[in-house]
Amino acid sequence: MPRTLRRQWHVVITALTLLGMSGGLLVAWQLSAELRAERGAVVQGFRLGEAARSLLSAVLDAETGQRGFILTGQESYLAPYEGALVQVPAALARLRGLLASSSLGIPSPGGGGPPANLAARAARLERLERLVAEKMAELAATLALARAEGTEAARARVQTDRGRQVMQEIRALLEEILAEQASGLRRSLDAAERADDRNLLLALGGMGLALALLAGGAWLVLRGNARLRRAEAALAANGAVLQATLDHIQDGIASFDAAGQLVACNLRFFDLLDFPQALARPGTPYSAFLAIDRRRGVPVLEAPDTLRGPAGTGARLPLGHAGRELELYRNPMPDGGFVLSCLDVTRRVEAEALLRQSQKMEAVGQLTGGVAHDFNNLLQVVSANLDLMGRDLGPDHPVRRYLGHAISALARGARLTAQLLAFARRQPLDPRVLNPGRLVQDMADLLRRTLGERIAVEAVVAAGQWNALVDPGQLENALLNLALNARDAMPEGGKLTIEVGNSVLDQDYAGAHLEVEPGSYVMIAVSDTGSGMTPEVAARAYEPFFTTKGEGRGTGLGLSQVYGFVKQSGGHLKIYSEPGQGTTVKLYLPRSLAAEEVPGGGVPGPVMGGTETVLVVEDDAEVREAVVEMLQDLGYRVLRAENAEAALTVVSSGVQVDLLFTDVVMPGPLPTREMVRRAQGQLPGMKVIYTSGYTANAIIHDGRLDREVQLLSKPYRREELARQVRRALGPARPGAARRRGDAVAAPLPAGASSALAAPQPEGGGQGAGWPEGSVALVVEDDPLILMNLVQMVEMLGFQVVEAGRADRALAWMATNPPPAVLITDLSLPGMDGVALAVEARRRCPGLPVLLASGHAESSVEIPPELREGMGFLAKPFAMMQLEDALRGLRERVKAA
């Protein structure tokens, strides 16, 4: 069909379609008008029937009220009658108006119904009004007769039945009116149905015509555009498949034709290389990409001639951009164009780095574990023999100074091994649920004294602090290491801030740090205002033995130990540092929903020996003999075995063994845990203490001690051994053998120097005039001063219980008998010495108190209740001054 003729057909079809739609609208309007008329007629009929029934009801009410009055003579029965006098005229008027406006019963010209009879309707209405008036007059006359002549005369008139005849005529007239109205309504409905049928036929015809016209036009349009649609559909399908393929590729893709114009791409290409998405339009020239790339200062694209590899091979360009590790490839196309593909290999690079770090740590861990086992065994032999040697030397023996140096070196070797184990995540952790904020606040005063006056220390703890499951001792050591590193970074002084808060590491953060598990953490940030670190130094800060300090100023294991501890605890560590701006080290420890564990027992009291039987199982002969000698020196009966099989032989012999003290790693086919299980099966009440210099063994899983396992790590001192044995066996039994000098102080804090305590005088217990075996509770927060003070008090013949804080001293007093004397420093963290003395006197009335202070006695305000039985000792003091102060205090107590 020619194009002109086809256009004319389009115009004709459009005109006919509009005409058909107009006819349909006209039919719809007519149908709507007829429906409205029908609805009005129905409503009129209902209203007319309601008016007729209302009139009849009012007349009946009037008659009922009149009859009731005539029968009873009571005025109250006239209420319906009196109401009807008002209702009847109103009902007549309403009925008259409805009949006048009603067209029912009057068919339209040409209709098939009866002729209209408006005169008959008017006559019927007039007659109805006359009968109603007659009825109401008859009722009124009867009532008047009843009032005038009595109810008998009224009843006689009623019995004439004239009133009933009138009432019947009224009913008949109303029924005729309603019947005429119903007949007219039926005729109207019949006419409306016929009109509906006609209109429906017209509407259907119009719709059919419109549909036919539309179908013809659609056929012409479809026939004319079929080939174009097929071609467009094929092109769109191919384009959709191509774009869907590109969009589902995780690599960035951009294809350019021979003219250097963009023909296909995905948004990933623009995200990776940080190009505006406005360039993602077909036809964008490659030069536009190069221009933007060069303006950024660090271009990642090159000119087409310089980034072109051999046909079919492509050229690879590794690069870093916006914190990502990328690989860019360019491959030629057959038509002379090329395809750029960009791969994000950040996760692969991070995974490779983590793998290398893991392999490095595993190698260091294996090396450290093997060295630690043998080295700690050697240290244990040296430690035990030095302790035993020191007990046999007098206080003024010249060799004691050399022994002190040897013990200090021993402690340094043990700390070095512990640091290596911490980095390798192989140290035994004893995690507890604690509040890190409270621990940081408790450490603040210690850090201030440790770092010196040039370093300002501030602890900031957020409200609503979460709990964490962590080893408190290792956390304190980690914070101390970070504080010392911060001090070294601020040689001219500065500020150290420790912040504790709650933190949630989400999926985005975990995606950027593959070793992090998303979740809730307790964040501890240690910030300094020091020299900071370059990115290269910060990247190596975790490596063992790496340090930027001068020769002899550090081992390079401090931050490595912190890193290993945090990782072993299931946490995360992050360093933020800029040269000249300072450093912030953030520790993220997993949150615990359990309640905080309150340490029980307070400060341990004096530890005695005993008479129980101890079976020592140790494969190293020198270590075994040293342990046996220390236990025998403490009064225990000691049995020995060189391996697990020999230990079972001793247990099977029938001898009673109270405690099994066994090494964990021993040669032989029988594992230590299996030997312990069999031994306890034969002796159910036997206690067990494990000892080891190598922690990657059967009793430690994921770096944590198994529950109910008591471990004594090598090397250990005689005091530590004595405490662990008594802890396992419980309090010493009454009458247990005890050697003089066996009272043992609590372990020193990590890093404190140690010196050998001189043996007590042979007349022990009589120092400074106090009774033999008197217990002195010594409270001092400085570890070195506490160590020296404990040694001097022991030399005066006391049994010493030591505490570094007032609350720990009070905790010990709550579970032990009162001490003979309280010796306390004035300046203590949390509660000072005076407040401690007041609370101790409240618990133990009359308790003697010796207050030590670097301030003058006159400047210390002593409450009146403490002045009795209290002495003052000015720092610094010597042994003689301490003895004089205790002797004077004893004399005042006796005098009181």
Helices, strands, pairings?
Blueprint: H1 3-72, H2 79-101, H3 118-149, H4 151-158, H5 162-247, E1 252-256, E2 262-265, H6 267-273, H7 286-295, E3 315-321, E4 324-332, E5 338-344, H8 346-392, H9 399-423, E6 432-434, H10 436-451, E7 455-461, E8 467-470, H11 472-489, E9 494-505, H12 507-512, E10 519-528, H13 535-539, H14 558-568, E11 572-578, E12 582-592, E13 613-617, H15 621-633, E14 637-641, H16 644-652, E15 659-663, H17 672-682, E16 687-692, E17 700-701, E18 704-705, E19 711-713, H18 718-729, E20 775-779, H19 783-795, E21 799-803, H20 806-815, E22 821-825, H21 833-843, E23 849-853, H22 864-867, E24 870-874, H23 879-895
Parallel strand pairs: 7-9, 13-14, 13-15, 15-16, 16-19, 20-21, 20-22, 22-23, 23-24
Antiparallel strand pairs: 1-2, 1-5, 3-4, 4-5, 6-8, 8-12, 9-10, 10-12, 11-12, 17-18
Describe the structure.
- The chain is α/β, with parallel strands linked by helices and 896 residues long.
- Among the domains are: 3-106 and 118-222, Up-down Bundle (Four Helix Bundle (Hemerythrin (Met), subunit A)); 252-344, Beta-Lactamase, CATH 3.30.450; 436-592, Heat Shock Protein 90, CATH 3.30.565; 760-896, 3-Layer(aba) Sandwich (Rossmann fold), CATH 3.40.50.
- The strands form five sheets. Strands 6, 7, 8, 9, 10, 11 and 12 form a seven-stranded mixed β-sheet that branches.
- β15, α17 (672-682) and β16 (687-692) form a beta-alpha-beta unit.
- The longest helix has 86 residues, at 162-247.
- The protein is elongated and about 155 Å long.
- The relative contact order is 0.05.
- The model is unreliable at 104-116, 303-315, 600-604 and 734-766 (pLDDT under 50).
